[in-house]
Amino acid sequence: MSAVAKKIEQPRLRGAIRIEEAVKVYGDPKTGVVAVDRCSFECPPGEITMVVGPSGCGKTTLLNAIGGFHSLTSGAIYLDGELLCGPGKPQAAPGSDRIVVFQNGALFPWKTNLENVIFGPVMQGKLTAREARDKAYVLMSDAGLSGIVNEYPGQVSSGMRRRVEIVRALMNDPKVLLLDEPYRALDALTKSVMHESLLQTCYRNRVTVFFITHDLEESIFLGDQVVIMTSRPCRVKKRLKVDLPHPRDHTTRTTKRFRELMDETMETVHEEAEKAFALGDREG
Amino acid sequence: MNTRRKGGTLEVRDISKSYGSGRFAKTVVDRCSFTVEDNKLTVMIGPSGSGKSTMMRLLAGFEQPTTGSVLLDGQKVTKPSRDRLVVFQETALYPWMTTYKNVVFGPESQGRAGTKLEKAADALIERVGLGQFRKSYPNQLSGGMQRRAELARALINDPAIMILDEPFRGLDAMTKGLMQEYYARLFENSENTHLFITTDIDEAIFLADRLLIMSNFPLRLREVIDVNLPRPRKLADIVESDVANQLKATALSLLHEEAMKSFTGTHSMSRINNNPGREDSKIGA
Amino acid sequence: MLAANMPTSTGIRTMRRAVIAIVVTLIFWEVTSRFGEWTGIQIPFMHVIPPPTRVLAAWYTLLGDAGYWQSWYLSFLRVLAGFGVAMLIGIPFGMLLALSRIFYQITFPPFEVLRPIPPLAWVPAAILFWPTQELSIAFITFLGAFYTIVINVIGGARSIDARYVQSAISMGASRWTVFRRIILPSTLPSIIVGAAVGMGITWEVVVAAEMISGGGSSMGHGGSGTGGGLGFFIWNSYTGGSYEQIVVGMISIGIAGYVSSSAIRAFGNLIAPWLKPR
User: Fold this and answer.
1) Which CATH superfamily is domain B1-83+160-261 in?
2) B268 at the A interface (CB within 8 A)?
3) ipTM of this predicted structure
4) pLDDT, tens digit, for every residue of B27-36?
């Protein structure tokens, strides 16, 4: 590939996130519940950062803070160098540059998948209906969803619904995709297929991904970086770069390096899971 | 009189199941043949919505095959019986009965009663670690505990074949791991034949003596893989084993290929089943 | 998880708002009702309604009146009679409809044809048909509860998880055992719901039935037009011109209905302990 072609191919990477000493306390600052306790880490632009930890430990709070749905008690979050929330501005404003895809899905059951996907941009006036539809067709076909474009969400499997939601998010050309355990309810095999599909999407779109999960295998498979959190209150316990080569597919799961990475991190994750288990939290 | 069954061999011969007729006929299970060997743990694994639960119902006798037959030790099976008991994916413990009452339901329905039964039931309840919860109702038990109670309820009838349909799906990761090891131990110490249905390849390899790899809808048998890992098995050992990893690689490739068939939505099954693998049937339907 | 630790200020706030809303309504009622007395300007519609203070005064007086309590007694009697029979007939009837296809095909059509007829429309027919007035009223209350109970029982029996029955049969249970130990307990929640709702309907119906049929019984004499059940009490208060008593009657029936339904739900929780959340 010539140097020029390569340059054209590479879209400008954006969506770098920097979290600095983030703290979130619910209730009274002195006596309330500390959900997040001085978390600091970075999410490089265009990369997939997996945030792993037991449920209820505060990961979702961080995600929501980035998304603009929660405020921080102290600390700051920066997006591409600009302050999202921090001293003087405890809560970011939600925006289409940071889109959240939730666990339980929020497609409108009375709209078709296509209508769901174009809803946001059309409603906000960013695209005309025709432009939105054209764009949606392309994105959906990339995601292998062209067959169900005119079906209703209730008529397709949950794996498909998830994919529709991700397409819906991508319609807004976000800088950051915030995923909160989107594949939690899926069975292992469907999950594996979803993973491959998500990677394919990321290879095309190079959006920054902030992905919360409790599933270690998922995080090593998808992630460029894995941040392991402690149980509540959440702190960064360990960070590691996942040096598995791209493009990855299901065969990556059985490679030697993959298993080594699993080995390195499994104990750390289990330790925290056990603590959370003892506290009565459940994940999975 | 209690004839103690020591497992049995379940033979599936060219079995098919279709619903509807003529132009609207839908074949869910398409000419499957396999053997569930005596005293072994056979694991059936396939993508969601492939028809595994239908196969389970055929084997249990809740439904009749359209063609082909199911034989237990050479005898054709036509209806549900104590020989083949099912542990379902979602709990089917009777919510209005305590753990104890649930466990003794089977024997009581057969007319058994008395202290001997009570002792046997209590022993089994202890064995599954629910001694403290003898008088609890199912909704007071956690997911893992409910599964254990159901295992006890089935085992007390000493069935020749235990059929488990994705029993650990939906449990949290911690509990799932514990239950898998626990169940492996239970099997290794018993003399029944087990058929375990799942979509999780790690679970499958950990548990199986033999792996049946199924296709996507309609259900066909794709491949049979023997898993010769030593028993008793521990999760940690399997994770480290190269043999297990190789098996996983082989199986995963096949399964991925099959799972991808429902990827684009043109595959008929992805239309029908919104929650593949769920038992949503009601008696009045 | 975190929500459990959040302060209950939301709960207190909601409660406070509810109390304020009720108090404001009462004040509004009192003021608009009495406005004519105080200023000579009568507020349209509201001035004919007696103010809450007068209602309470009237109620206080009635509490000592045997006839008032007898109204309660009579209405309750009729409700229980109708409701009781509706349960006795309705539950088996509903179960049969749910479990036997043949029975359903024969019996459900006429049932469904009759069901849209409101119980109150039956009043004249009931008066003609039944020898005594009490029986007519009881019949109307019976109808009120009956349809609801049957429909709920059918729904409940139909929506039993097939796996309960399948596992029971696998384990060797006979049909009778399956019915007695699986189907019946499984349907219990629907029966309780049907009963609670049916009870509410019964109260609506008995009041109207009493008003229409002039439900005075030979037993009733108390002062102030009381003595024939709460419905009759209200109607009588209207014709007799004691408007405070109308409101007292209305509130009394509201309380009676609420108490009855709650009693059923409480009873339901008692016999179905497994339905309580963990």
Assistant:
1) P-loop containing nucleotide triphosphate hydrolases (3.40.50.300)
2) no
3) 0.85
4) 999 999 999 9
